[in-house]
Design goal:
alpha/beta, Metallo-beta-lactamase, Chain A
């Protein structure tokens, strides 16, 4: 029997959907894509990329280090956060099928500092890696914050039920440390090998710490109201982490993944002071190439008349401090 959730503009009580317009791709769409697919080449062997993160120094309020795909280490004065943690070499059911990692994590798992909070945006395998969640629980026992319907994924990875917080869009959780984390809308979908399609909610997160704010978009297509609404409710974030990859072909991906030009529009809708690109150069998921997203982002920034400093990509193990 499937779970029951509050009825809203994005849930009928049992299934979640995108407000205003929702499009699910089917196997015929996948077959059409694969028949016409001309994927750009990716490296055949994993590329090394690894650093040991330094503690957050008193001169900064936030350090963001890209580990790969949508995994960031966010160090704040009130604790350390890990977003969509994926450390496995292969993503997919039981880590036996699916794309292989082409760049090593920017921080080795054993070099991570104490992790206080894990943010999980949705259930797709390149964001929700069961093996990594198990490792995190055994070593760090962090608090997990995730959208509605995703708690069973954490429980099956060993997380104690009282260490899992489920949120609906616009709900927030205040930690004893003083961190405040709110779940924000995203335009996406959910599905795993087990469980109903769109039976678990997806979203992003707005993080408020002393004198600094950050936005983690999760996985999303562009939406002409969602990100303006986030800015109106929470204000412009000091840092936004926005996906820039896995966008080709556009006829297939447009309803679930933004391209670099749309990522820039999300940055502008949010009023973000600085943005970093993610969800690229780690797993070959779609037809865009390994290094194509940074090139397209640079071209789109120039076309928009924006400085490359306001929205950039970085190598795994790199990031910025605020």
């Amino acid at each position: 029997m499937s779970a029951s959730f509050p009825v809203s503009d994005h849930c009928d009580g049992r299934r979640f959907f995108n407000p205003h317009h929702h499009q699910d791709r089917n196997w015929l769409d996948v077959l059409r894509w694969k028949r016409s697919s001309r994927p750009a080449p990716w490296p055949a062997q994993p590329l090394p990329a690894r650093i040991t993160p330094a503690p957050l120094d008193p001169a900064h309020r936030l350090a963001a280090t890209w580990i790969g795909q949508s995994t960031f280490l966010l160090q704040t004065r009130l604790g350390n956060i890990l977003t969509d943690p994926v450390y496995s070499d292969r993503i997919g059911p039981a880590n036996r099928i699916g794309p292989r990692r082409v760049r090593a994590p920017g921080i080795a798992f054993d070099d991570l500092p104490a992790i206080d909070v894990v943010l999980l945006s949705h259930d797709h395998y390149d964001h929700c890696d069961h093996a990594t969640l198990r490792r995190l629980w055994r070593k760090h026992a962090p608090l997990a914050i995730t959208p509605l319907g995703n708690a069973p994924l954490f429980r099956s990875a060993g997380f104690a039920p009282d260490r899992i917080i489920e949120l609906d869009w616009w709900q927030s959780h205040a930690l004893a440390s003083g961190l405040n984390i709110a779940l924000t809308p995203a335009r996406h979908w959910s599905n795993r090998l087990r469980g109903p399609r769109n039976g678990r909610l997806w979203g992003g997160f707005f993080i408020s710490a002393p004198a600094v704010t950050a936005f983690f978009a999760g996985d999303t297509a562009y939406d002409d109201t969602m990100f303006n609404d986030i800015q109106k409710k929470f204000g412009p974030p000091d840092l936004a982490l926005i996906p820039v990859g896995a966008y080709a072909p556009r006829w297939f991906m447009k309803e679930q993944h933004c391209d670099p030009a749309e990522a820039i529009q999300i940055h502008r809708d949010l009023g973000a002071r600085t943005s970093l690109g993610m969800h690229w150069g780690t797993f070959p998921l779609t037809d865009d190439g390994f290094a194509e997203p940074p090139r397209e982002l640079a071209l789109a920034l120039a076309a928009a008349g924006l400085s490359p400093d306001v929205f950039r990509t970085c190598a795994p193990g790199e990031g910025l401090r605020i």
